[in-house]
Amino acid sequence: MSKRSVFYGWWVVAAAFVITFVGFGCAYTFSAFLEPLQNEFAATRGAISLVFSLAGFLYFILGVASGTLADRFGMRRLCLCGVVLIAGGMAGAATARTLPEVFIAYAAGIGLGVGCAYVPAMGAVQRWFVRRRGFASGLAVSGIGVGTLVMPPIASWLIAGLGWRQAYLVLAAVAAVLGIGAALLLRDDPHSMGLDPDGDEASAAPAGPGQGVGIAQAAKSPAFGYLYMSSLLTAVGVFIPFVHLVPFAMDQGVSAHAAVWLLATIGIGSTVGRFALGGLADSLGRVRSLVTMVVAMGLSLILWAMVSSFPALLMFAAVFGAAYGGWVALLPALVADLFGRKHVSAIIGALYTSVAFGTLGGPAVAGFLFDWTGTYRPAIVGSAVAALAGALLIGPSTRTLARKS
Q: Which of 173, 212, 187 shows the shortest CA–CA distance to 94?
């Protein structure tokens, strides 16, 4: 390889960035659609919230299958399938005539689509890097942050100008064009291009995806069990703001136009967290950095429960976004550190089933509690406590690594 050429791993990172931008950007527009859907179908806030929770449950629970399939059949095929499903789901939601049809469109489209694409895309990045794994992972998943920054305001603008159905159709077209183009750039492994991870010249070692334990061996380890429970507890509160922050702000008298920019602020913070903190963790240690991110998420949720003014909500959104971004960036890198690169997609997928259960419970329970009590605060405080408990479990899961980092 010419010394002047760009290491292809960075093209893989760019592809993963666009795939996460499309997948999660489309998913996180849901808050902008919540009120129109609620009005269209005369539904409670809890029932509408369940749409997002079910889709979120599916795209994380399916990671264990998509990761295993990607390790066997290739990352590109799974990601292509995923982005086509995402676009189809958005188009399906546009034509829905009943709330169950919205459930089906989101489950089959956003749920299955992100489930097919996210873990394989992130697994590919782990295989291309070792020394700069934290930075590369952070850069790749910063697509989620940029998607959160860009897509909800665009969705709000489209809804205001075209109506919610036409807005979904426009977003479907964007997802198809960008997502398919990005998926075609993916390559599974540096050895297939005569390289070692990080752009080193290929060694004399046999070509392959690197060393590592299988999914069954990883799942039986205490390290995986602690990390699984930590992720489950943390995920309970992670997605509540993405569904309920906009209606929460509107309940406090904030305009719909201003409220949607709270999600954009989460996106800004998330992008900073993924891009900057992922690289910084390579130097400071990924274990202690991950603990710091989860603690920061818990404390920021406590702040949310205590405030109601728009400036204070902006502060919450920025802090929460940065911590959330760092958490998402570091989890895949830590899995590769713990269990090796060979079966990393499958192991990441298995770990993310914990996030699936947290996503299924958090936003929906928050919505139903609001319908029952008229306030989000009990759900927010409960999720904050769960996140802080999750932070305590990271240390035992990675004690050997912590001594090295």
A: 173
